[in-house]
Design brief:
The complex is a heterodimer. Chain A is mainly α. Helix content of chain A is 48%, strand content 7%. Chain A is built from 17 helices and eleven strands. Helices cover 8% and strands 47% of the residues of chain B. Classes of the chains: A mainly alpha, B mainly beta. The interface between A and B is large, with 82 and 77 residues.
Chain lengths: 466, 1061
């Protein structure tokens, strides 16, 4: 009998443990929250949305821009080594840490956007608020994917129906192994997101630090432009330009701190620096280009770029944003003064880009060349301070196109635009187009994926080396 | 004092004797040499409750016996039982002495198993039992080092050189990838906390180029025995964490031999097994110039690092290896006292170990105390207490990739001076026409980088890790009736770990030479608390002569927490602005300056991690006629590592044994006196894995967040389906004893099939996170173990015994679940998981040779074609770090009082990837790395037509086609590292007892011990036995046998004196 008594005591002791499984739930470290604790109100969801902007700002702090520029013909390097040297030499290793980090960060933004989309319906947003949140995250998601497809896939037009390998477009957060879709499918997704955002009519009008209606549509215009769909690009660029929400500033410098109230900026990231807060978001510009520091800059303007503009001493962009350093010595190089500040806001979408985009579309479509000319001249007059370098009315479309593209190259220097314009031209206009001595569509002209991207369903890019 | 205690005992016994009445028996029990056996027992058969234990002099008395024929049974642990029948008349007191023979059957020994003990002959599992002495004779700070070569299938890779660094222990290969691959350590029944990455600040896994040893707190002299549990039958009872084997350590408890004191000391020296040879200044410059010329340059070479010119380095020649190594001195003292009596026994000990390695500045000091005691309240109730308190103080220096000797073997160039040989002036920024002093003569020269002056860095930087460790266990055993026992045990494992660093401003670039004695003091406190509760109930049921059962059920609960402490920072308004562990403008480290300790509060205590286990288990042993054995173990384990759906794992095992030699037809076999066949199959789990990965977690940043608004964001890709990694283990073994145990041995086959392997997978980036914790694929280990113990010669004055063991293991990844080879990487070591290959395969581009015409490498393309372009798409498995076979041979010779023992250990078939060789043999300045060369660089291409192992030297990063970075990890650096090593030689002399007694001692022995005396290997690197610093658990599992500036093992010469009194 006593045996049963003791066994009972033992079992009872055991049951104390097994009564519920709470005793097996470990506490989280102090700085962590369970999702159910973290997301309790719509304010919490908005903080997650803010974190999407946060990652986006870390990507557009110069990093994604120089990833494009290094593939193009605008830059030269102090020495062509390291991770950036691999990009410049068009032979990115599957272990390239910068490239890996960039891809991961771009998809990190996407993940957060997707998570918001998955849970936003659980919170007490008004329909308008919810629509705005969704439109913002759709645009941010499209923006990230747009950068990825431009960098890691051959451009639209590389194959007739864009059946060549694109990039995975993520719209949900589960960890899954997905096949590599075509560029056509990728762009269809981008367009779907942006069109939905634009059509939602839910976005704000004029907050340059958030996705606004103008930002979504400006991006849509740029996507169509990259696709070679100039009619649609023109349509949406027109909408933004004609909205009246933006106007060209008098300054040639769009890379300014938040105290400068620049009216041409459609969307930008913010460096928040005060006497007590130090949160710069322009580090990969200031860390690589600045010529006003003791150490020589790692990234410089290429001779190819500078030669196109150097003789025009009336162009304030040439004289104020660039300088020849160590002239007439073996160490001579063209320094970029454009980013010679401790920190600044980084413009991502702006009116100058759209006006040049519109001008190029009009020229290519051979429509309304007067507007195209005016767009170019608006920018020229700002650069020269007068109309002395204006394109005269009535120049032929071909000649105007040259002027538009010349403007675009110097205006958008450092913003990661140039190489994608060249690729678009290679794809749709000149299949023999060369970029820094290699054909525009050689294997090394796109970035290699990190080795871990390779799965049974996903073939990474051919190794570069061109 | 001792005499007084003895007198008291004698007096007490006399008092007891005064009460004798009627028939009595008394006598003395001795061993074969006539030495008294205190604590031996005498039982009167057939007269319940009648019996006695011998006193200090081996004497016993049993009174109040019934007259007539009585049977006396004499027994003592380790001796054969003896029965005597006597006739006792009324009122007679008879003297009956007994001389017990030492048991020749090691197989009759008792071994510790999970939650209990078993006689070795009844064990159906695979257990290796080692005596504490085998552990104590190795002068290493931590006991596990001594296991190598002594337990078949147990691989110990001692971490290079440093006094406080951790070893890697693998039992029967490696079954885990992302889960802990080390065996579970149980000290006196307590699952101890064994965090290999806790010793380096907060979140810094291998700072300073090493992982600190979490087992070094244990004084080897406290150890009574070590049991290694290997198969499912043995380990299933620790189901939750037994998949990688279990090592049970039992500490001394006080033998029942009265009062006994023990003192031992070891004094020794430490040297490297192999001194690193590096080029001198002239040789370095010659090779630099050769590279310069190879690239088509002419004239005086330029481009030396640190802005040095060719001319100014001509006369500098620093031997940095000499600067960083020394003859280390080791001293160890241990004092213990044991006392045993009917009611209680205890062991108390204190020890001090000051263990210098041969690396200058590296020293591990341990001061430890232990008290173990047992108290028997009655026949039914007893209590045991085990407690120890250890202070480990580790004086650290940078090593390996972090600097120190590692720098001396790499980037500390011989052309760098140690100190300035004159004052150096620079332009005064305030007055350009004037100059100010920049460096004084005698200041350390840091212009080549702080790490590249290891002498200066070591002298100026202060670094100390201090750990207070205490493991305490209290258990109560209650036997309410015969054969039924209840045991309750509670234990508390505490670790208070503090890392202190002090970095003076002097080592910072551009430091003002006029500012002396200022710097940054860093302190990283971490406390770990582990509570372990378990209760068991066991019942022995002898149904009849043929059938006997042993039932055991139990439950266990383990809760581990670790917390880190930080300094709270506030802004000018007093609001919280962050946490830190650093104090600027300090005059020295925290441990030297009371003002720092008094004025700086580490009052922000943050939970770092918590891990909880709860388990329920049962075991049934059945023996039929004591020769057919069976065991069933069931264990259910809950772990906080998994979500509610997968929290519990169920781990059963069954095993059986057949003692063939007990069969009638074998009884009289003249050769085989013992033969047991045993087999087991079972499932064991592993959840030693990153916590909270099954659930979505967020971080919140209030300020600055983004755009000065708070941000809230997910920090992981949760995997709600995470579940236990499960290993199915099959074991078939044969134990044998030949010629009356003159030769004993065991042969075993095992197969460990691990499924749902826990891996920290590198995710395709499109998933939004880089890491993911997943159950992926499988790992298979199988092998054969063989051990043999032979008493070759046994005479009165001379004996020779040989112990030999060898274990063959095959290991391969059976499935990767669709992930790529790059999904799991071992740190930076280019070790990968590849289906069909072993865990931690070296995955690199193969080099087939050097083109004699150009001096450029020729690679093998993925289809076997030669190519001169380096392309990572051509990576294939080029080697493995896991050996095919390991083992050891111990020979012990006894001649009169002399004993000579030698231990040879060997490893066959493992490769070493010498990660640093690519720099040490090429210098590799092309990519901005300036490394000194080892003599291996002589085998390089220097002119067209030359056949060489190494390619041409170059300063130009365009010389090697396709190579865009210095990540030139190729098969050129992978080499077979099979070795045979004379691990230990011990010569000892045991003084005769009478001689010892002349100087007031009961026993005295003196031993000379040498370790790592000789190594036979084809490996051309520093040391074929290598365990480098690891960045995390996965790296630790994957990157065995990779080296990156890892210091060689130490060679030691010691003298050990052991005295009993």
């Amino acid at each position: 009998m006593k045996l049963f008594k003791h066994i009972f005591i033992l079992l009872a002791t055991g049951l104390l443990f097994t009564g519920c499984e709470d005793y097996l739930e470990a506490e989280l470290p102090n700085n962590e929250l369970l999702e159910e604790e973290a997301l309790e109100s719509k304010e919490d969801v908005l903080q997650v949305l803010n974190s999407c902007y946060d990652v986006n700002a870390n990507v557009f702090n110069g990093k994604v821009q120089y990833a494009h520029e290094l593939l193009g013909d605008n830059l030269s390097m102090l020495n062509e080594s390291g991770d950036l040297g691999q990009i410049y030499n068009r032979n990115v290793s599957i272990f390239n840490g910068v490239v890996d980090g960039l891809l991961a960060d771009l998809y990190r933004t996407v993940f957060r956007c997707n998570r918001i989309e998955e849970v936003v319906g659980d919170f007490d947003f008004s329909p308008a608020e919810e629509a705005r949140v969704i439109a913002e995250l759709q645009t941010l998601r499209a923006l990230s994917h747009f950068e990825i497809v431009k960098l890691w896939a051959q451009p639209a037009g590389y194959t007739a129906n864009n059946s060549h390998p694109g990039i995975i477009y993520r719209t949900e957060t589960s960890v899954t192994v997905l096949p590599r879709p075509s560029v056509a499918e990728t762009y269809n997704n981008i367009l779907a997101d942006l069109t939905a955002a634009v059509n939602s009519n839910a976005l704000s009008v004029n907050n340059p630090y958030a996705i606004s209606a103008g930002a979504a549509e400006a991006l849509l215009a740029k996507v169509y432009f990259q696709l070679g769909d100039y009619s649609n690009a023109l349509l949406h660029a027109d909408n933004v330009i004609n909205s009246g929400a933006y106007r060209l500033d008098t300054t040639i410098d769009r890379f300014q701190t938040d105290t400068a109230n620049l009216s041409e900026i459609i969307f930008k990231t913010r460096s928040f620096v005060t006497s007590t807060i130090n949160d710069p978001r322009s580090g990969d510009f200031t860390g690589n280009y600045r010529t006003d520091l003791p150490q020589p800059p790692f990234l410089r303007a290429s001779a190819d770029f500078y030669e196109d503009y150097a003789e025009d001493t009336l162009d304030s962009r040439v004289t104020e944003l660039f300088e020849v350093i160590n002239a007439d010595t073996p160490d001579e190089f063209v320094g970029v003064k454009k980013f010679n500040k401790p920190y600044f806001d980084v413009p991502i979408l702006h009116l100058t880009d759209l006006k040049l985009l519109r001008a190029e579309c009009l020229t290519l479509l051979n429509q309304d060349l007067n507007t195209a000319t005016q767009d170019v001249n608006d920018i020229r007059e700002r650069a020269y301070g007068n109309s002395s370098a204006n394109v005269p009315a009535g120049v032929p479309a071909n000649a105007l196109l040259e002027e538009v593209r010349k403007e675009r190259r110097i205006e958008m220097f450092g913003e990661g635009d140039r190489v994608q314009q060249l690729k678009r031209r290679g794809a749709f206009e000149d299949d023999q187009l060369m970029i820094r001595d290699v054909i525009w569509n050689c294997d090394g002209m796109i970035l290699q994926f990190p080795g871990v991207e390779r799965t049974e369903l996903f073939d990474i890019n051919p190794q570069g080396g061109c | 004092m001792k005499r007084l205690v003895q007198s008291c005992f004698v007096w007490l016994f006399l008092l007891a004797g005064a009460s004798l009445l009627a028939q009595n028996v008394k006598g003395t029990i001795t061993d074969e040499k006539g030495e008294p056996l205190p604590g031996a027992s005498v039982v009167v058969k057939g007269q319940a409750g009648k019996g006695a234990a011998t006193d200090l002099n081996g004497k016993y008395t049993i009174s109040d016996l019934q007259p007539g024929e009585i049977q006396l049974e004499f027994s003592f642990i380790g001796f054969e039982k003896q029965t005597k029948t006597i006739q006792l008349s009324a009122n007679e007191t008879k003297v009956v002495n007994a001389m017990l023979k030492e048991s020749s059957r090691r197989l009759d020994e008792v071994v510790v198993v999970g939650y209990g003990v078993q006689r070795k002959r009844n064990v159906t599992g695979n257990i290796v039992s080692l005596d504490g002495k085998e552990v104590r004779d190795m002068p290493a700070p931590s006991f596990e080092v001594a296991l190598q070569g002594k337990a078949p299938g147990v691989q110990i890779s001692t971490s290079g050189g440093m006094a406080g660094s951790a070893s890697v222990v693998r039992v029967r290969g490696i079954a885990s990838v992302g889960g802990g691959g080390d065996p579970l350590y149980i000290v006196d029944g307590v699952q101890i906390n064994q965090d290999y990455f806790a010793g380096s600040g907060h979140g810094r896994a291998d700072a300073g180029g090493m992982n600190q040893n979490p087992l070094a707190f244990l004084n080897p002299d406290d150890i009574e025995s070590v049991e290694v549990l290997k198969d499912a039958s043995a380990t299933a009872i620790y189901g939750s964490r037994g998949a990688n084997g279990v090592i049970i350590i039992t500490t001394k408890r006080g033998a029942q031999k009265g009062l006994r004191f023990n003192f031992s000391t070891t004094q020794g020296v430490s040297l490297p097994t192999n001194r690193p040879e590096m080029f001198n200044g002239r040789e370095y410059l010659d090779l630099y110039e050769e590279a310069w010329i190879n690239d088509g340059n002419t004239g005086v070479p330029t481009g030396l690092p640190a802005g040095l010119s060719w001319n100014e380095v001509q006369n500098t020649n620093t031997d940095w290896v000499d600067e960083t190594i020394r003859t280390g001195y080791k001293q160890f003292y241990d004092f213990g006292v044991e006392y045993g009596k009917d009611k209680y026994n205890f062991y108390a000990g204190v020890s001090y170990d000051a263990n210098q390695s041969y690396i200058e500045g590296d020293q591990y000091n341990r001061l430890s105390g232990r008290f173990n005691g047992d108290y028997r309240f009655s026949d039914k109730l007893s209590m045991s207490l085990s407690t120890n308190l250890t202070q480990g103080v580790y004086y650290r220096v940078d090593n390996g990739p972090a600097g120190g000797l590692g720098a001396a073997m790499s980037t500390a160039l011989p052309i760098y001076p140690i100190r300035y040989n004159r004052d150096v002036y620079t332009q005064d920024p305030d007055n350009p026409m004037d100059s100010v002093i920049q460096h004084r003569q005698g200041d350390y020269w840091f212009e080549g980088g702080v790490n590249n002056n290891p002498t200066g860095l070591r002298d100026l930087k202060r670094w100390r890790n201090t750990e207070i460790r205490s493991i305490n266990n209290l258990s109560i055993t209650y036997s309410p009736f015969k054969n039924f026992t209840l045991t309750g045990s509670g234990s508390y494992d505490y670790s208070g770990f503090t890392e202190d660093l002090y970095e003076p401003l002097d080592i910072l670039p551009g430091a003002d030479p006029n500012i002396v004695g200022q710097g940054i003091a860093k302190r990283y406190p971490r406390t770990s608390n582990s509570v372990n509760l378990h209760g068991t109930a066991s019942y022995i049921w002898d149904l009849n002569e043929n059938h006997s059962f042993n039932f055991m059920v139990g439950t266990e609960y383990v809760d581990r927490r670790s917390e880190v402490s930080n300094i709270v920072l506030t802004d000018s308004a007093g609001n919280f602005s962050g946490l830190t562990n650093e104090v600027f403008d300090a005059n020295g480290p925290f441990y030297d300056f009371a003002y720092l300790r008094d004025s700086v509060e580490f009052d922000s205590v943050q939970l770092e991690s918590q891990r909880i286990y709860a388990s329920y288990f049962g075991r049934v042993n059945y023996a039929y006629k004591n020769k057919y054995l069976a065991q069933v173990v069931l264990r259910a384990d809950g772990s906080s590592s998994f979500g509610p759906e997968n929290r519990f794992g169920f781990f059963p095992s069954v095993s059986g044994g057949w003692i063939i030699s007990d069969e009638k037809w074998m009884k009289y076999n003249r050769v085989i006196n013992y033969l047991k066949l045993k087999s087991s199959i079972g499932f064991i789990g592993n959840s030693d894995f990153a916590q909270n990965q099954f659930i979505s977690r967020y971080n919140f940043i209030q300020a600055p967040g983004y755009n000065n608004n708070p941000i809230l964001f997910p920090i992981n890709a949760p995997n709600p389906d995470l579940k236990w990694e499960t290993t199915e283990i099959f074991d078939l073994g044969l134990e044998f004893g030949l010629w009356e145990d003159r030769i004993t041995g065991e042969i075993a086959y095992y197969r460990k099939n691990t499924r749902d392997v826990l891996m920290r997978v590198q995710l395709p980036r499109n998933n939004g996170f880089t890491e993911y914790f997943d159950n992926v694929g499988g790992v298979l280990n199988y092998g054969v173990e063989f051990s043999l113990s032979s008493n070759n010669i046994t005479t009165e004055n001379f004996s020779w015994k040989t112990d030999f063991n060898i274990a063959f293991n095959r290991n391969r990844i059976t499935s990767l679940g669709g992930y790529s080879e790059d999904a799991v990487a071992g740190g930076t070591n280019d070790t990968r998981v590849v289906e069909g290959e072993s865990v931690g395969t070296f995955y690199m581009v193969p080099v087939t040779g050097i083109d004699p015409s150009t001096g450029l490498p020729i690679y093998r393309g993925i289809n076997g074609e030669p190519t001169n372009v380096y392309d990572q798409a051509n990576r294939v498995p080029v080697g493995k770090g896991i050996p095919d076979a390991i083992g050891g041979i111990t020979n012990t010779f006894n001649y009169k009082n002399w004993t000579l023992s030698t231990l040879l250990v060997f490893s066959i078939g493992a490769d070493v990837y010498d990660h640093s060789a690519k720099y040490q043999q090429t210098g590799w300045p092309a990519f901005g790395n300036f490394w000194n060369f080892t003599p291996a660089a002589y085998d390089r291409w220097t002119r067209p037509g030359e056949e060489a192992r190494l390619p041409r030297l170059t300063l130009d990063n365009n010389t090697y086609p396709g190579l865009e970075e210095d990540f030139w990890n190729t098969s050129l650096w992978v080499q077979d590292a099979s070795y045979l090593r004379l691990r230990n030689v011990t010569i000892s002399y045991n003084f005769d007892r009478d001689k010892a007694q002349k100087i007031g001692l009961e026993g005295l022995s003196i031993a000379l011990i040498g370790t790592n005396l000789l190594t036979f290997t084809e490996f051309t690197g520093l040391d074929p036995e290598v365990a480098r610093d690891f960045t995390d658990v996965t790296d630790r599992n994957m990157s065995l046998n990779t080296t990156y500036l890892t210091a060689p093992q130490e060679q030691t010469y010691s003298i050990r004196i052991n005295a009993n009194f």
